[in-house]
Amino acid sequence: MINHTVRTRRSADDFPQSEHLAYKIAQLAVDPVDVPADTTEMIINRVIDNASVSAASVIRRPVTTARSQALAHPAQTGASEATGDRRGAQVFGVPGSFSPEWAAWANGVAVRELDFHDTFLAAEYSHPGDNIPPLVAVAQHKGVSGRDLIRGLATAYEVQIDLVRGISLHKHKIDHVAHLGPSVAAGLGTMLGLDDQTIYQAVGQALHLTTSTRQSRKGQISSWKAFAPAYAGKVAIEAVDRAMRGEGSPAPIWEGEDGVIAWLLDGPDGEYTVPLPGLGEPKRAILESYTKEHSAEYQSQAPIDLARRMRAHIPHIDDIESIVLHTSNHTHVVIGTGSNDPQKFDPTASRETLDHSVMYIFAVALQDGSWDHVKSYAPERASRPDTVALWNKISTVEDPEWTRRYHSEDPNEKAFGARAVITMKDGSEIVDELAVADAHPLGARPFARDQYVAKFTGLADGVIGTGEQRRFLDVAAGLADIPAGELDALNIAVEQSVLDAAPVIGEGIF
């Protein structure tokens, strides 16, 4: 890896394009280096994982809304001298071909709705699996091969994860999808075999158009939390389309005198270090990301497993006086009491708010000894008097050691867990800690292909027929060998009776 220093430059400075971060990302994207076998294997796992959570969310209202919008944009298929072959893209669960940016929109919301897919945490937060829907949609529309899709996804994961390592957005209340727009643009560039100048312009446009505030993840959290990454993917597709037609971008987008660093991040004196693979160095960043066993914000994964483990040592949960979770700064201020969000203790809060309240999540996991993507968030579950009472006994505090481990670059030391101190009414304490979730690569039950398949079959049960499940899993496993023009096979048919149960969505503009 090569560490690149990124800082603001004055317009009068001699700052050649070759030094721009967007250009260095473009150079990474055009590097013809082979994708390692273990990277390919993990990309296939994450394609399966995205299908799992899409099946679980397929008739939720935001997903139904996004799907209805996409279905109003059928593809204009065919071929012309100017555009080449155009096939259309698939929307999860339904037949037909649709405009790729709208298919990416619908599928991106389905993937993100339940907060149930992969994650990478460092200086910033991210869900790099959000790159998959836009790249698959364009791959289907342009008729590329499975090998080319894998190459594009390796780039997209690498770019987003490396930006997350080096540049904190949340510090300045900028939403994490500002790293997703550039990664999708770069991944599309690799997949489509675009030149470095086109990718450079597309990366700049995608970043310029996907910087928004973190209010989407603060206070009473709305359904926009699911739409935000899908929007970034849709915008990135449109940015690549414009760049392919010869249109440019504000530049230098990160380093400019009136650019992202100067006015949205650390300011004119800000300086960042972004690591990127050197020429000929394989793209392996996906291997440092991790998926979720539980449908909840990633920093609550280990606390859920910890609560389930501690439950056996508590004779009577009603006898608990207080619970303090000692954890990292990120966990404390994003999903803990350090957020100062009273909504995180509101039994009538939205599901999106509850999955960002580690106090609620720890209480339910402690009481139930399990976690379910539907039952654990049900209004009647959240409003149970004994749950509300326990919930209000839980608080978080920042522990400098947990913060240090959160930011450690040593994967054997990096941790996203907590130490729980449960004080009983008689004054006794029950103390335990867990550094990483059970499903983490270093956890008690790390996820590999069998676990990804089990997650898919479990969440697809009753949504997708068993024959269709087997067909999809066979297709996904052979992704690298799918010929050009046959990636439509990645779409999955949902049982019509399931789709018929989706909520009725009001008429919009489209």
Automatic annotation (TrEMBL):
Domain MmgE/PrpD N-terminal: 20-270
Catalytic activities: (2S,3S)-2-methylcitrate = 2-methyl-cis-aconitate + H2O
Entry's EC annotation: 4.2.1.79
Gene3D superfamilies: 2-methylcitrate dehydratase PrpD
One family name in Pfam for this protein: MmgE_PrpD_N
Alphabetical UniProt keywords: Lyase
An MF annotation (GO) of this entry: 2-methylcitrate dehydratase activity
Top-level EC class as recorded in UniProt: lyase
Every MmgE/PrpD C-terminal domain range: 294-478
Similarity remark: Belongs to the PrpD family.
Subunit-level organization: Monomer.
Protein name per UniProt: 2-methylcitrate dehydratase
